[in-house]
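Weekly structure sync - notes
Attendees: PM, LS, DV (DV joined late)
Agenda: review two folding runs queued last week.

Item 1: First target. Sequence and structure tokens pasted below for the record.
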Amino acid sequence: MTKNIGLDVEAPKKECADRHCPFHGRMSVRGKLFDGKVTGSKARRTITLQKEAPVYFGKFKRYARGKSTIHAHVPGCMSVESGDHVLTAECRPISKSVSYVVVEVKS
């Protein structure tokens, strides 16, 4: 059974028994949504995600490309590989560096 997580995303078709899954487990999502590209998936059920955003430098009156890296949990019902474009949502801290969970794989 897939529950409604309160976001306008497509629910995964596969079932899982992951307790950190927002669709099939007990994890609730809140706060910010990040849209980014997967740069690494070496750790078990964890990906690194690179988010690009413009940074304004007032001294030079110009914008520069800023990048930040976040870690996100991948539920068992989703398959994510390096290079995919994913949508992540903020959740409670799962570990020291993981506070986001993947809610949709776009490509």
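Item 2: Second target, run right after the first with the same settings.
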Amino acid sequence: MSSDRLRARIYAAYTSATNAPLAPDTLDGFAPRAAHLNRLIAEHFPADRSARILELGCGHGALLHFARKAGYANMSGVDGSPAQVAAAERLGIPGVRKGDLMGALRETPEASLDAVVAFDVLEHLTRDEILDAVDAIHRALKPGGRLILHVPNGSSPFGTLMIYSDLTHEVAFTPESLAQLFLASGWRKIECFEDPPAVHGLKSRVRALLWRAIRAALRFYLAVETGSRAHTVLTQNLYAVAVK
């Protein structure tokens, strides 16, 4: 279990205590992430641009920035790292405030949100904290509302790269473990999706094609070992959408 002491130390320097800085100096620095985040918005955000959306663990506001550019004016974010919130302020991204996940959810009126986004968040929580968070998010969402997740994929042959890339990570997930968690917690359904290279030019198109070939080889290996062809989510991270 991550101690509060460890979390406090790491989160206080979250944007700087890395080999490469997490937050860019200007909004132009978001360009390498644009295709990836725009795909997330296009594929999984509510169709209604007036939807009320809360992002938990929003970091320095990259997803908020692209969501607003896509027309989602009713989205806000909360993050527990003062360094991340300061970076959002420096970049001029509105709607980012400092706060802990559970505190933000407790302050949210019941059945008031159309969607909640937790991008690289649940893996930072202990199992008991995950249960509390899932229940609190369920309470805050309207009937039919959705939780959009991005988490390390324990089903990936290289999923350990993601789970061990951050000292504050506690757990990885698989489509099966996410189904256990959400269906046992009163959610109506959950779907899981891969997170392959987003195509936005020649190099990324080549990467996407190579990934398809590698993925086919991995599925063949797993089918030989297990006798099952059910292994379909193999990227190091996965997306999931749970519906209340």
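Discussion on item 2: The chain has a mean pLDDT of 92.
Action: LS to circulate a short write-up before next sync.
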